[in-house]
Amino acid sequence: MILLLGASGYVGQAFARELELRGRPFTGLSRRDLDYTRFPALLELLRQTKPEFLINTAGCAGKPNIDACENAKAETLLGNTLLPQLIGAACAATDTPWGHVSSGCIFSGAKILKNDGQRIEPDLTRPELRELLVHFPEKIQGYTEEDEPNFSFRHPPCSFYSGTKALGEDAIAGMGRVYTWRLRLPFDEFDDARNLLSKVQRYPKVYDNANSISHRGDFVKACLDLWETGAPFGTYNLTNPGFITTRQIVEAIQKILRPGRNFEFWIEEEFQQFGVKSPRSNCILDSSKLLAAGVKMRPVAEAIDDALTRWHPENH
Ligand SMILES: NC(=O)c1ccc[n+]([C@@H]2O[C@H](COP(=O)([O-])OP(=O)(O)OC[C@H]3O[C@@H](n4cnc5c(N)ncnc54)[C@H](OP(=O)(O)O)[C@@H]3O)[C@@H](O)[C@H]2O)c1
What we know:
The chain has 12 helices and 11 strands. By secondary structure, it is an alpha/beta fold.
């Protein structure tokens, strides 16, 4: 049996669907059923039920978005740092292998290839980079699992949410048999307040930046594939290979959904001043470690086009 924590959430529901499809017996837990954030309760549960694997999708992602975490710091720290640490300790004590859903939002920017090497560029909105992003994507490289997060409490500025997610990774690194699965800006064909494609369609103004992003279904499949194929434990970037700008997402929406409206874009300074409360991570990740482990995710443009082609509006 697989134990799924946070099964009621956006990511948890996707795991539940995929586990059902694979015919894998699992128990989805909500804090309403049993408060798994209490160490003695979780340890006792693991001792009694002896799951073959534990999946942690629980965490505090902020509602309606991560700005909410700035006003709920204690809950955010509990959900994103202390909870994974506590789960890690309970799994280590019972020798239970497990996977933790982390986030790629602990990075900012990308690496730019130059003739004499490469440099870290934390801000991809700089006008001189636009040309590179659109016409020379091969000159942009993502952060690998070896790179230290650069959007964290150790490397400020960062959002409180990102700071706690980076600390959560630190807290469980090397603790027993654990996968740290990094998810980024999830999307799929199901209209939802947490779906990037829904967000882009609902923003009064769109913020253009470049990101590596994760198709929610591809993400959960890849997480389970890593475990089922016996890939080495450790950290994996699970984004659809490549990157995409928000403007390219809008172009795909216009082409496929034909919403019959224009999209307005923020000007950079305006967005930082009026658009958000906390700084946002925009970053490009390298997913070649996942591919080298033999697990495939579709290229990002293909996954976006497919999600839009099969789009299910919320009220239909
Ligand atoms: N959605 C995204 O854009 C995104 C992107 C990257 C990474 N992630 C990560 O993916 C994980 C799941 O995110 P999600 O979007 O599925 O979130 P969600 O829809 O809010 O679900 C998270 C679930 O975690 C449980 N939980 C346990 N402790 C919590 C706490 N202190 N605060 C809030 N919820 C808590 C809740 O389930 P019960 O109370 O029912 O147990 C909740 O339903 C999080 O770790 C998040 O950081 C999300």
